[in-house]
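ugh ok fine here u go
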Amino acid sequence: MTPLRKTYRINGYDLSVLEAGEASAIPLLLVHGSLCDQRIWTAQLAAFAGHARVLALSLRHCWPETWDGRGDGYDIRQHAEDIAALIRQLDVGPVHLLGHSRGGHVCFRVAQHHPDSLRTLILAEPGGQLDPVLADHGAPPPGADLGQMFEDSARLIAGGETDAGLELFVTAVGGPKAWKYASEGFKAMARDNAATIIGQAREARLTFMKAEIESIDLPVLLIGGALTRGHFPKVLDAMQRLMPDAERVTIAGAAHPMYEQRPQPFNDAVLGFLALR
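structure:
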């Protein structure tokens, strides 16, 4: 089934959505991470369409919009409110919501502030910092060293050194060879969305607080890559420990972009979780 691209007018903004599956089925919304857009979910749209009404969003200021990084709106709070408004506009009751990396953080905030709009929450290595009280004793909070990287990457991109800025960002998130060995398709997508790093460097970096994590009283699936290093596993550890109804799956042989590196086990984990709900 070929996905259809639709446009929804949300909070004064034209939100682009790829949609597949039966219109009468319960929606499953897919929310991408940094430098990505709706196109990153190709393998999931094909796999999930027989089980749900699948909607893959491009967040505000991401492709197919051409944005220069000026102005506001590229913000976790705004993106979360856009998703909540889209769910209301769909008018089908609570939905399933899946987010990866920064998109996972956005989905967490939807669950925090609009819990009645969701049936389930699926977080694939959500991006963000833990409150220091949840960090390892004697260690800086995970992600505390990323602020300067965001600023340096944004400065390079704004100055026209796009690939240098992208390499700096992707390497910091995915490891020393992440940009070098990224697919050409991902690199092209990242270039299309490069200016969003300028917006991301400006946004207030919300922290995952203990009470906030404990407040997510929904069925939650946490997904991580077995090869992922850095702060992402620590965030999953805290969420698994503190969320009242969370289960966790680890995708063998995959790092942060596990949905792309190992799509079959990733998709199986999601569909298995949804089948019970």
